[in-house]
Design goal:
Elements lengths: L1 E5 L3 H12 L3 E5 L3 H8 L10 H10 L3 E4 L2 H5 L4 E4 L15 H13 L4 E5 L7 H12 L5 E5 L9 H6 L4 E4 L3 H10 L1 H5 L4 E4 L1 H32 L3 H9 L20 H14 L5 H24 L8 E5 L15 H10 L3 E5 L4 H7 L4 E3 L2 H4 L5 E4 L4 H4 L3 H7 L4 E4 L6 H7 L3 E3 L4
Parallel strand pairs: 1-2, 1-4, 2-3, 4-5, 5-6, 7-8, 9-10, 9-12, 10-11, 12-13, 13-14
Length: 434
């Protein structure tokens, strides 16, 4: 099939590359000429393990190309995917659909025959019907259908998620669109991966409901962790105990400094707003948003307490700043709340992250960026494990402790056990919920 992918951000680029690996002819479109030049030279503007090699492979096979010319890409396409940004709108928390609707208008003018316009971006319920109206108004002669195809990609494992999904969700209005989408995902059909075909509104809601539920699990265990600290329980044992229940499951039950990233903050906010607009308050989701912010502030208090209530003039090494490992994504990362508080308190902060510096330098002013954890902890008064990158999971703790002025560890990911930290020479160890 011939596929046009509008937008080469995280979702668009990963999806376009993977669709080309399915055997389709894919043209990825972006308005940024610098990004197109980068992609054409084989450079990937985001960090996602394995994406660069897969992209080069399919470009060389002639199945994948990049352009700034939307009209040329859309003309003759069987399916056109909209994968542009839907950031949180300032003031009301809703998803900003400006880019989606602008793309829809451009697509309408470029269509040359029947095609299915597929919204891949995360959008509020009712958006696909609006897309249909925009296209029909811009080009009354257009022959098309719309479809909703939300993504469920985990950053750091996106390629595997695309190729071996838990499910693919497709929202359509008729059999013609369903047949096109079935052909787009034919390799997954043949391997018996679940394809959920439903109406437009249900597909849109599935995305928001899924992310809100996962955000709720994270926030729940973080609240339990706070209580564990007060009553002397161990949240890791609690998580293990409840996670063995098949009705609960063990995923997303790891206590930490709160969720971040490109999806959970934005999607919980949008779902709360959708509920308010329809007079059905999403009270659980609204509480999750508030509690998650409180969790980040509680981490600041934990750090302050570990540093005797004052970080002024103290050197603090922060290991990791991205919202999770195996990504360069800094969006709504807990570090964006915690690190500025330390800098504002007078601390001399050193940050080490394998991929976070590119975005982090602009987002975290006043810190000293370093490339090596052992150099970062030299003469430091405290070390914080902020993001659980593999290289921070296997540190020589004795070597770390011996290099520090005052060996104190604030482990916000519970990577190390208190026993191991104390044995290595740490005077103080503070985990989450331990």
């Amino acid at each position: 099939m011939r596929i046009a992918m509008i937008g080469t951000g995280y979702v668009g680029l990963v999806s376009g590359v993977c669709f080309s690996d399915f055997g389709h002819d894919v043209i990825c479109v972006d308005k940024d000429p610098n990004k197109i030049t980068m992609l054409e030279s084989g450079e990937v503007p985001i960090y996602e393990p394995g994406l660069d090699a897969l992209m080069v492979k399919n470009v060389e096979a002639g199945r994948l190309s990049f352009t700034g010319d939307l009209s040329a890409a859309v003309a003759g396409a069987d399916a056109v995917f909209i994968a542009v940004g839907t950031p949180t709108r300032r003031g009301d928390g809703h998803a900003d659909l400006t880019y989606v609707m602008a793309a829809a208008e451009e697509i309408a003018q470029a269509m040359t025959g029947y095609c299915v316009v597929v919204t891949k971006s995360t959008v509020p319920v009712g958006t696909n019907r609006r897309v249909k109206q925009v296209i029909a108004k811009a080009n009354p002669e257009a022959q098309f259908d719309v479809a909703s195809n939300p993504e469920f990609l985990r950053e750091g494992a996106a390629i595997d998620d695309f190729m071996r999904p838990d499910r693919v969700v497709v929202g359509v209005q008729n059999d013609a669109a369903a047949e096109v989408m079935a052909e787009v995902y034919r390799p997954l059909f043949l391997r018996d991966f679940p394809i959920v075909t439903t109406d437009l509104e249900s597909a849109e809601m599935i995305k928001y409901a899924a992310n809100a539920f996962l955000a709720t699990k994270i926030t729940f265990i973080n609240e339990i962790a706070a209580l564990c600290e007060k009553v002397g329980a161990n949240v890791k044992e609690v998580s293990k105990g409840i996670g063995m229940d098949g009705r609960i499951g063990n995923k997303f039950l790891h206590a930490g400094p709160g969720y971040g990233g490109s999806c959970f903050p934005k999607d919980t906010s949008a779902l709360a707003r959708i509920g308010q607009e329809h007079a059905v308050p999403m009270q659980i989701t609204e509480t999750v948003i508030k509690v998650n912010e409180a969790v980040k502030r509680r981490m600041i208090d934990k750090i302050m307490d570990t540093c005797d209530g004052n970080v002024n003039g103290k050197t603090i090494a922060v290991l990791g700043c991205t919202f999770k490992p195996n990504t360069d994504d800094m969006r709504d990362a807990p570090s964006l709340t915690i690190v500025p508080a330390l800098v504002g308190g007078g601390a001399k902060v050193r940050v080490v992250d394998p991929q976070g510096r590119k975005e982090g330098e602009a987002l975290l002013p006043g810190v000293n960026w370093m490339d090596d954890a052992y150099k970062a902890v030299q003469n430091a008064h405290a070390v914080i494990v902020m993001t659980e990158w593999n290289e921070f999971r296997a540190l020589d703790l004795k070597r770390v402790a011996n290099r520090m002025e005052t060996p104190r560890m604030i482990d916000l990911r519970n990577v190390y056990s208190p026993k191991d930290a104390k044995r290595a020479g740490f005077e103080v160890y503070a985990g989450v919920g331990l």
